Amino acid sequence: MKEDGGVISIVKNQAVNSLSWQGARSTNLHIEKRMLKRGHKLLARRQPIPIERDTIMVFADQAPRFNWAHPCRYLLHDAKNGELYREVPAQFPPYMTGAPKTYEVFHEPIPLPDRHHLWPILPKLRCPIRWKRGQRYAVLFSGASNNRHTNDLEFLYRTLRDLYGFPAANIRVLNYDGTVSYSGGPQPVTSWPGDSTAYRMPVDGQGTKADLDGVLDELKKKLKREDVLLIHTNNHGGHNGTESYLCTYSGADYLASDFALKLGTLPAHHCLMVMMEQCHAGGFNAPILSNSTASQTSVSSACLELNNSIGGADFDPFARDWISAMAGATPSGGALASNPDSDGSGKVSAEEAHNYADAVKDPYDTPVFSASSTEARACHLGQRYFWFWPVYCRILVDLLRPHYQRRPISEFYDIVHQRLVPQLTDIEQGLTLLSETGRSELPEQVATRVARAFGGSPRSQRRRR
Amino acid sequence: MTDAVDALERALDATLDESERTGSIAYFKPTVVSAGTELHLGDITVPVARDSLIVFVDLEPAVNWSHSCCYLVVPVVGAVSRIDARMPPFLKAGGGGWRLLRRGPLAPEWAVAVR
To answer: What is the distance, to the nearest Å, from the Cα of residue B38 to the centroid of all Cα atoms in its chain?
Structure first.
């Protein structure tokens, strides 16, 4: 009997209608559109499913993400009128391998597979980032890491090293047990899911309070007035009823008040930029602002003090999106939802990165941003271009692109930052001078011409009226 | 061990409501805890009155810690008791030895915390 569209529709409708509200959200339904003749030998592995009449069979998988065996049902429908005549519970599907083309899923509330498979591309090449004065330091911390937390750290590490030219010696990574590892799967630890290459970040210590204190103590000897410090904390956090805390790999957890006090022992510096992903991170905002010794301080947290932050298969969404804003691309090199550099200044500020992550956030997260001043909101990690630079950048990027496509990313950026940028200094100084001259003279020159075109300035027009 | 796992599965079915069962991930430690022991698990202390197996249930597995979870004390003989909590037993180093008991159909695979 050929496939009868009418009966098949009736069978599908009946099968879905028969599910409870919860069942409809958790049971995948498959249909064998080929009619099974009366007496056909159908096996659920070794369990016979009796076919008492010409039948259209629906298979209901009640736990689609489980390995077999697990609960499932065979719904046997009369091939003439589509009526359900028997339901058979079982533990195996009709086809473990090699399902025919006539067998298809038609109700799939639980899509498979679970992990995202994204095709990585080379991120768009942009003008190399410049940093003029002072040093930039970064501390990347994840205590009781899962895979996604370690991946967030790796994404930020690559962004800081490759795109922003942070010297390797200025970045400290503290993760889990002191290695590139984490609790849970996937195991063994192999590659970073952004582009499926090996992890690159060197881990300097464990995700413990002691090691974090050690890194901050080290910074006491280095930080100067012109310097910028980025601190990123990830993995898990808690709240003890009074304040938030950051979970650690072992030993004491880090209370928000204690962390803020520790930051208060750092020497005065230009900018402290903090991004926190852990649950209850918002409880760190105010204490950090109160104790920071930086002239400009900002804290971007994934959630309010009493809230949790959502995780993800490969990355934590908020951290991923904040770092993506700084990087100008997703972990797999893809385009962003919008340009985070919303004022077109050539730099992504602390506030702009937060706003981007907030704009595309998972609905579960409740990002919160705090800053000590307007200037603190504009704090940044490096500038891509100044006023007249877009033309210069286009020239530079076109010349760099063949090299970018031929070399490993890390090698390319090492050459850019260490060999090329120093050679461009005289050109860029000239452009900067031109930019500053332009900024002071150009507005008046352009305003004169605009006023001429419109018969005077708006103010003079109002006076005449 | 199969009988013990079956008993733990029945304890889960009897203690959790339907939405908890479908969205949670449950773990167990395959060693019997002796009567009179006080276990420090996560953020709570669990008193064990009779020889029991312990089940840990993550009720919001897609979210970073801390969040809703519970511990089930499943005695060899007697009623199951449930203690609600906010932290898992395996977050800190040394908190190992837990095995996956059941992952609910709505719980993501990537959230399973043990190998």
So the answer is: 16
Residue B44: left if φ>0, alpha if ψ -120 to 50, beta else—which one?
beta
Mean pLDDT confidence for A403-422: 91
Which pLDDT value is given to residue A31?
Answer: 95
pLDDT classification of A98: cutoffs 50, 70, 90: low
Confidence grade of residue A88 (pLDDT, cut at 50, 70, 90): very high
What is this structure's pTM? 0.71
Cβ count within 10 A of residue B55: 24
Q: Do A236 and B65 touch (CB under 8 A)?
A: yes
Q: Which residues contact A264 (CB under 8 A, 6 or more apart)?
A: A291, A292, A293
Contact pairs from chain A to chain B, CB under 8 Å:
94
On the CB side of B100, CA atoms within 13 Å amount to 17
**In which element (H, E) is residue A118 found?**
none
> Can you read off the two tokens belonging to residue B80?
């199951």
Q: Which two tokens stand for residue A384?
A: 């891509």
* CA pair distance A35, A102, nearest whole angstrom: 10
Calpha distance A295→A190 (Å, rounded): 41
CB A382 within 8 A of CB A388: no
Strands A72-78, A84-90: pairing is antiparallel
Question: In this predicted structure, which of A58-67, A86-95, A403-412, A414-423 has the lowest mean pLDDT?
Answer: A58-67
Q: Which among A315, A268, A319, A261 has a CA at the least distance from the CA of A140? A: A319
Most B-contacting residue of A107, A146, A189 (CB-CB within 10 A), to test interface: A146
All residue ranges of chain B with pLDDT < 70 are 1-2, 115
Query: Do B48 and B34 form a contact (C-beta atoms < 8 A)?
Result: yes
**Residues ≥6 apart with Cβ < 8 Å to A414:** none
State how far the Cα of A274 lies from the Cα of A257, in Å rounded to an integer. 15
pLDDT of residue B92: 83
- Rounded to whole angstroms, the Cα distance separating A260 from A325 reads 26
Q: Is the dihedral of CA A302, A303, A304, A305 positive or negative?
A: negative
Which DSSP string corresponds to A174-241? EETTTSS--BSSS-S--EETTTTEEP-PPP-B-SSHHHHHHHHHHHHTT--TT-EEEEEEES-EEE-S
Tell me the C-alpha to C-alpha distance, in Å, between residue A445 and each of A127, A254, A357, A438, A439: 29, 57, 39, 10, 11
Chain A's closest residue to B86, CA to CA, is: A238
Interface contact B109, partner A, CB < 8 A: yes
Q: Report the C-alpha gap between A416 and B31 in whole angstroms.
A: 58
